Amino acid sequence: MATVAEQDLLPEVQSFLARDQFHAVIGGQRVASSRGETFETRDPGSGTLLATVANMQADDVDRAVAAAQAAFVEADWAGLPVNERAVLLHRLADAVEKRLLILAQIESLDAGKILAQAEGDVQNFVDTMRYFADLAQHVQPRIALAIKGVEAATVHHAWGPCGFIVPWNFPLLLVGWGLGPALAAGNTAVIKPAEDTPLSAIYLAELAQEVGIPDGVINVVPGLGEVTGAALANHPGLRRMSFTGSPEVGRLVAEACGRNLTPVKLELGGKGAAVIFNDVDVADTADKLVEAITFHTGQVCCDATRWLVQRDVYDQFVDECVVRLKNVRIGYQRDADAQMGPVVNAKQRERVLGYLKKGQDEGAELVLEGGAAEVSGREGFYVKPALLAGSLDNVAAREEIFGPVAYLAPFDDEEQAVAMANATDYGLANSVWSADLGRARRVAEAMDASNSWINAHNVFSHGIPYGGVKKSGVGGGVNSIETLLDYWWHQSVVRPL
Ligand code: NAD
Fold this sequence. Notes:
Elements: H1 11-17, E1 24-26, E2 29-31, E3 38-42, E4 49-54, H2 58-73, H3 82-98, H4 100-111, H5 115-136, E5 142-145, E6 150-158, E7 161-165, H6 171-184, E8 188-192, H7 199-210, E9 218-220, H8 225-233, E10 240-244, H9 247-260, E11 264-267, E12 272-276, H10 282-294, E13 304-310, H11 311-326, H12 346-361, E14 365-368, E15 371-372, E16 383-384, E17 386-389, H13 395-398, E18 405-411, H14 414-422, E19 426-427, E20 429-433, H15 437-446, E21 451-454, E22 469-470, E23 473-474, H16 481-486, E24 488-496
Parallel strand pairs: 7-8, 7-10, 8-9, 10-11, 12-13, 12-20, 13-18, 17-18, 20-21
Antiparallel strand pairs: 1-2, 3-4, 5-6, 6-24, 11-23, 14-17, 15-16, 19-22
Nicotinamide-adenine-dinucleotide is lined by residues 165-170, 192, 194-195, 225-226, 229-230, 233, 244-246, 249, 252-253, 267-270, 301, 400, 402, 428, 468, 473.
């Protein structure tokens, strides 16, 4: 088994990983679990132990929320002029950007992410901080309302301590999507990273102290979902909650927030479609969709996992995809020539393989076999890309697999394609592929999901709202002004004249 030391890591990464135990960051202090409990995080590409991490308990979460409340009130984070908060967020962005390779190596090791993709995630974090730091300075805190007979205005206020529960597929990037708007608006944060990938959030919270963000503004409580996550979701001291993860856990978090009447934003799973018409460049479309389904080994909520293809180009499209998927270079995530790394853990590999079996049991055809993959010298969790085909009334076409598996089905005309794309409980992201841009726009707008892309899949930019409807989420607008506005509550002040 390879060890971490063998892997040509930056000295800063080696010294970061050399700690006996990783602690929570609460009110600027490194804090162990009150019960002394720990859990382990492993490199998904080699199975090697990366770190032992504090498993924070409910009373630890209490302390973290109290620290966030103290930073909100006593350190007066919300009372800082907006440009001074923005300066600190830019300093954090600068500091992260200077350490881009360090954080990318940590993320790549912890999440099993291809190194170049991890670098992209870290850069996205930097861009998110800068986007919200700049945007917040252009929003008027007080807006006079022109109403007959009254002097009236709306005034916005930060909420206070906000909770963030995040998944393992984009650990730092998603922390950024939460922290950027929340902190720019004057709120403070308690983050519960996923148990598979706690390291980048801990690194970040320590770095935030170095750039002068007041203690308690960013708190990180690592731990298991049903303990630490549940304690945070249930905490009455939070003023807002944001959850990113599976619909099953999202429902539990929403129930807990409902009991406390804490507003909650949910970013959940997806079962996106790519609708491919017969006027496309088939080879080019196959290139792009194969790239999308293998990106981060298919562990991407907004992926196109149902490929709906007009009947007369169906066979050609399938053949082009099979050739490409067979040639995907599966390898250790930090090897320069690897295109697709491991999935995050053994359970996730079993999940992917299980869906291939369940799908076939319900009648799907296995077009490309998939299965477990071997990577020489590495005892990680590798899977091969797979293709299923058949009726969409199949478990593998209905449920989120979260691996490099696409489900194919032919369609005859536009109306049928839209109906098939919309025949899902999810509503996150779809794409439509056609040379006829009028038709492409029509189909894009008819698809029952928050994000529709044309002749591309996975197109993100700060300023374009991202979110989900149906089983994919509640309260979208991520990475746009909508989310920033969400992180203020709005007050009317009125005097009759
Ligand atoms: P998950 O729901 O299992 O876990 C997400 C987080 O919730 C983790 O931090 C986990 O520890 C915590 N958690 C688990 N049980 C909990 C409980 N009882 N109470 C409170 N917290 C608990 O999801 P995952 O497997 O880590 O991530 C994959 C899922 O995330 C997929 O469904 C994917 O589509 C979704 N996702 C959505 C988006 C989006 O923007 N819509 C982005 C990334 C991932």
